[in-house]
Specification:
By secondary structure, the chain is α+β, with helices and mostly antiparallel strands. Helices cover about 20% and strands about 40% of the residues. It has 2 helices and 5 strands; from the N terminus they run βββαββα. It has helices spanning about 40-45, 80-90; strands at about 1-10, 10-15, 25, 55-60, 70-75. A 5-stranded mixed beta barrel has the order 1-2-3-5-4. Strand 2 and strand 3 (about 25) form a beta hairpin. The longest helix is centred in the last third of the chain and has 11 residues, at about 80-90. It starts with a strand and ends with a helix.
Length: about 90
C-alpha cells in the first residue's frame, strides 16, 4: 500500500505528496476491480466531509489516471496548525 498526504477540498483529496501523484481523487474501500466500475467504486466511497479543509494521510492504491484511491484507509488527520504547514510546504 502506498501513502498519500493531501488536503480535503470540496469532498475530494488533493494529493500533495508524493509529488508524482499530485491530483484530486476520491477514496473508496473496495479493491480495484479488473474492469472500470465507477458505480461500484462510488457505492463504497469514503465520505470526507468531516475532514473538509484538513490535511489527512491515506493508505491505498492509486491506478494511473483513475481518479480513485482503492482500498483506502485514513490513517491520520492533522489539526489546523499542521494543515497550514502542509499547505505552505506543498502549495
Amino acid at each position: 500500500m502506498d501513502r498519500f498526504l493531501g488536503i480535503v477540498e470540496n469532498g475530494r483529496l488533493n494529493i500533495m505528496m508524493p509529488r508524482e501523484h499530485c491530483c484530486t481523487v476520491r477514496l473508496t474501500q473496495i479493491v480495484k476491480p479488473a474492469t472500470s466500475a465507477e458505480e461500484l467504486a462510488a457505492s463504497h466511497e469514503i465520505d470526507l466531509s468531516q475532514y473538509e479543509g484538513c490535511a489527512i494521510m491515506v493508505t491505498g492504491k492509486l491506478p494511473e489516471g483513475k481518479g480513485w484511491i482503492f482500498e483506502a484507509k485514513i490513517i491520520d488527520t492533522a489539526g489546523p496548525i499542521l494543515t497550514e504547514v502542509v499547505r505552505s510546504l506543498f502549495c
